[in-house]
Amino acid sequence: QVQLVESGGGLVQAGGSLRLSCAASGRTSSSRAMGWFRQVPGKERELVAAINWSGGSTYYADSVKGRLTSSRDNAKNTLDLQMNSVKPEDTDVYYCAAEANTGIATVTTTPKRYDYWGQGTEETVSS
Questions:
Q1: Where are the beta strands (DSSP E) in 84-120?
Q2: What is d(CA 6, CA 27) in angstroms, rounded to the nearest whole number?
Q3: From the CB of residue 20, how many other CB atoms can be counted at a distance below 10 Å?
Q4: H-helix or E-strand containing 121?
Q5: d(Cα 113, Cα 101) in Å, to the nearest integer?
Q6: What is the percentage of the chain residues whose pLDDT exceeds 70?
Q7: Using one digit for the tens of pLDDT, what is the confidence trace for 65-116?
Q8: Pairing outcome for strands 114-117 and 18-25
Q9: Three-state DSSP class for residue 111
Q10: Are 117 and 4 within 8 A, CB to CB?
């Protein structure tokens, strides 16, 4: 079992920066690919960033490419999402998630393959 807890959300002005963090616990959490999703009520959950278990490979959605950077520290079992040049359309609840399987060398971009989810952290970008 893997437990995930996000933190770092809040209110930020457009053009500013914010850093989200996800603390993972549970056996083998550091050997799982992970991702950041966002969702507003009534809309489908969107994958914005994904990172493989080692941190050597990443994926970013086109809407955030160049502005968001995902990183992980497996020694500390943490996953971070640095958000720069934020826009009002980045307003969402952000979730971190962990892949069902361990040791996957590639990033996971298929939402169904994520089995473990945090409770979410809300970010609001004011214009």
A1: 92-102, 114-117
A2: 18
A3: 23
A4: strand 121-126
A5: 8
A6: 100
A7: 999 999 999 999 999 999 999 999 999 999 999 998 888 888 999 999 999 9
A8: unpaired
A9: helix
A10: yes
